[in-house]
Design goal:
The chain has seven helices and three strands, in the order αααβααββαα. The radius of gyration is 22 Å and the shape is extended. Helix 2 packs across helix 6, helix 4 packs across helix 5 and helix 6 packs across helix 7. By secondary structure, it is mainly alpha-helical.
Length: 163
């Protein structure tokens, strides 16, 4: 039996499907998801079962000497209310504490607790192990070149992206 010709809509849908997966964003997204998944697995192995991806994504935005919630919100690209909720959750779990801002009595600074600082140290170890695994997969030279190129690309695209 002869195949019937594809309709215009079928051709359009095929073209749209091909275009959806044929761009740099897809492998970047896949790599990011895999990286986050491996980081979370590392945290779980070390006993950080009480943290979500959102929590682990927020903590690196916190300066070592503390950060205001408004600054955290701007860095994370979230609302002050969302950050306030996450900070409350992290505070209840013992990773951060809020202290008065010495330059503004109305404001609070979010700081790491001892447990939060240990989380940071453990995260650095997990990242080092993950970077070593990436080097093993593609080779030292290719990994170093890729990391440099990705940093350059991110810097340039951030300059062009709307706030």
């Amino acid at each position: 039996m002869a195949k019937r010709p594809k309709s215009g809509e079928e051709k359009e849908l095929e073209a749209l499907e091909a275009a959806q997966i044929d761009h740099l964003g897809v492998p970047l997204w896949r790599a990011s998801r895999a990286y986050v998944g491996l980081m979370m697995a590392g945290y779980r192995r070390l006993g950080y079962d009480d943290l979500t991806e959102s929590h682990t994504g927020l903590l690196p935005h916190l300066d070592i000497d503390g950060t205001r919630i408004t600054t955290l919100a701007a860095r994370a690209g979230l609302t002050k209310q969302a950050i306030g909720q996450m900070v409350s959750e992290l505070e209840a779990r013992g990773y951060v504490t809020r202290v008065p801002d010495p330059s503004d009595a109305r404001a609070k600074i979010v700081r790491y607790t001892k447990k939060g600082r240990q989380f940071l140290r453990d995260g650095q170890t997990i990242k080092q192990d993950l970077h070593e695994r990436c080097r093993e997969l593609v080779g030292e030279e290719a990994f170093a070149a890729f990391a440099d190129q990705l940093e350059t690309l991110a810097d340039q695209l951030e300059k062009e992206a709307p706030d």
